[in-house]
Amino acid sequence: MSEQLGRTIQIYLPNGEPRGIRIAELTTRTVQTVLIPQSELGGAKKRPELEQIAVYFLFGEVEDQVKPIVYIGQTEDVKKRLDSHSNEKEFWKTAVLGISKTQAFTPAHIRWLEWYCIQRAKEVDRFLLDNEQNPREPFVTEPMQADLLDAFETLGILLTALGYPLFDPARPVADTDWFYCQGPEAQATGTLNEDGFLVSKDSLCRQQISGSASSTVSNLRGRLTESQILKETESGQFIFVQDFQFETPSGAAQVILGRNANGWVEWKNKEGKTLHEVKRAPNQAEEEQSNA
Can you give the residue ranges of the DUF4357 domain (predicted)? Predict the structure, then answer.
């Protein structure tokens, strides 16, 4: 298998603010993304990029949900549509537009991209989808679909580079990268990845939470049960009904064990080595040798 080729992404800051409006592109492609914080919408309307038709994404969070949320749409009038969403949808904090640098997108292009983006977001299931309607696949010719799949690939890369891995599926995990967390009434499997720590479906959690556990443990456990990611078993434990991405190994271990815990110590591989010994210690040893 050939190695993945490197790519160059250019991000332009029109206002010079790294947390403001950002226009991103792969230097060899014609698709651009325009990231607009909701607080910057007024100024963004002056940008020429908003004069184009676009597929767009609204990103945000909902207080009682553990996953971030997204709405996917398409429009021939970006300014009017974003104004409408500002009044109707409370959750979103950031909009990302997908446009063509050469203004090559047509209404047929963006309708198909909207449909395909919704299908892929459902399959990957990293974000809650706010779309209530499930559009049918619009007709496009075979050559046009090939071009749009190429545009979709670029959109996915740029969204991930901007911090929204909406279409990134979980990567296959080698046997040596699985770790296990065990305790009274608890038995879980997981792996360290670029997003934090992924706990596998069918992992079991202890139902009882220690009285000395921080409120963060009970709050997150509550949100997981409300979201039906955790469900109670007949034996009185909680079970993960799907894979779930935690921000840290410790956050995962605490929910599973029902107490305060250091995930770098609690998670162990088949040989009994801790996550710290496998992942952190070798890097620390290399740094010490290079500094010697």
Answer: 221-275
